[in-house]
């Protein structure tokens, strides 16, 4: 990992909620709002953005844990901002506080933990599972 990744650094990402981001099960849409699964996916993405500039050749980030609470709805058409702030860097471990909000509410918050590891180690672990 390159030098410089430190607590306090932040990244953000914005989206507009679309129909394909709504919760659906067995082909039936449940609500016309951002699904929890989609919210978590964007939270992971914005956390990943915090490490991208610090990956060295032969390294990759890998998810370790996600802990999130979904607090409020984001209807279709609503613009949502996602944020990640690095809270801890300990060896290969990078912890981020994440949150998402729109103009009326904070819609979710939590933590994403990633590890920066050699690609060869990640690939060997994947191969061991086949």
TrEMBL record:
Pfam families: FlK
Active site: 36, 44, 70
Gene3D superfamilies: Hotdog Thioesterase
InterPro entries: FlK, FlK-like_dom, HotDog_dom_sf
Domain Fluoroacetyl-CoA-specific thioesterase-like: 17-119
CDD domains reported for this sequence: hot_dog
Domain of life: Bacteria
UniProt protein name: Fluoroacetyl-CoA-specific thioesterase-like domain-containing protein
Species of origin: Alicyclobacillus acidocaldarius subsp. acidocaldarius (strain ATCC 27009 / DSM 446 / BCRC 14685 / JCM 5260 / KCTC 1825 / NBRC 15652 / NCIMB 11725 / NRRL B-14509 / 104-IA)
């Amino acid at each position: 990992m390159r030098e410089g990744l430190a607590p306090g650094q932040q990244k953000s990402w914005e989206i507009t909620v679309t129909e394909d981001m709504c919760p659906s099960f067995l082909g039936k849409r449940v609500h016309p709002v951002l699904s929890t699964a989609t919210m978590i996916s964007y939270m992971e993405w914005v956390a990943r953005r915090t490490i991208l500039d610090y990956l060295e050749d032969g390294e990759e980030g890998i998810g370790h844990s996600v802990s999130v609470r979904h607090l409020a709805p984001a209807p279709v058409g609503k613009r949502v901002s996602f944020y990640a702030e690095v809270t801890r860097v300990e060896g290969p471990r990078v912890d981020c506080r994440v949150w998402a909000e729109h103009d009326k509410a904070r819609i979710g918050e939590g933590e994403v933990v990633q590890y920066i590891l050699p690609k060869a180690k990640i690939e060997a672990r994947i191969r061991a599972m086949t």
